[in-house]
Amino acid sequence: MIRGLDTLRQNIDVLLKRQENASSNIANVNTTGYQAKKLFQSTLKQVRFQNYQGGPNVNQRTEIGDFTFGNQLDGAALNPEKGAFKQTGRSTDFAIQNDGYFTVKMPNGTTAYTRNGNFKVNAQNEYVTQEGYQVLSAAGTAVAAGQNPAFGIVAFDNPQQLESQGNTYYTTTQTPHNVQTAQVLNGYLEQSNVATADEMVSLIQTGREFEANQKALSTNNETLNKAVNELGKI
């Protein structure tokens, strides 16, 4: 019974993470350049159960069978598919038509990547993000504002493994490679690639699994209550 509580707790923790992820995706459905994140889970390995309550003296080993102690999260992956393009007409908006990411210098000096091309121009006539982060060229220098800006567009062998830093910025330990034939549209922005219908279905499914686990928890609690308060009196 106590083990059952541990199993239910682990299942509920997994469901909470799934709910948080789906909610985050839905909340960013209108965020420019946002890439949806998907969680992966698996069932824990089965373990053999036995006791020593067999035989006339209740001391012989009895095989009960296999049991699985719930599920676990194996990791997360980004959806690298491109979102729809929206025409804005603004000269400081850019969208990458093919695969790849804009390169950005973060305040701490590290490099991040984004598909959000909603830029602005600073006092030095350089393109920066809305947060003021410097947009870099392939040579790692600031990109001057003007016609045909030399953005440093890079791609990765496994873009699903990029790690989100919030605000559509991503980092990775992978080595990027420059996209020599990058096609960048001026006056357009790439919209979020979140599939709202899929995320809503995921939330509904997670909610139903919550209900099933709550019922199992209630049953387990009632059984434990009888074992402690009623059988203990005999």
From TrEMBL:
SUPFAM superfamilies, per database record: Flagellar hook protein flgE (SSF117143)
Q: Which UniProt keywords apply?
A: Bacterial flagellum, Cell projection, Cilium, Flagellum
GO terms under biological process: bacterial-type flagellum-dependent swarming motility
What sequence ranges are listed for the domain Flagellar basal-body/hook protein C-terminal?
186-229
Domain named Flagellar hook protein FlgE/F/G-like D1: residues: 95-137
Name the Pfam families on file: Flg_bb_rod (PF00460), Flg_bbr_C (PF06429), LlgE_F_G_D1 (PF22692)
Cellular localization per UniProt: Bacterial flagellum basal body
Q: Which residues form the Flagellar basal body rod protein N-terminal domain?
A: 17-35
Which GO terms of the cellular component aspect does the record hold?
bacterial-type flagellum basal body
Instruction: Please tell me where this protein is predominantly located.
Output: other
The record's comment on protein family reads: Belongs to the flagella basal body rod proteins family.
What is this protein called in UniProt?
Flagellar basal-body rod protein
- Source organism per entry reads Liquorilactobacillus satsumensis DSM 16230 = JCM 12392
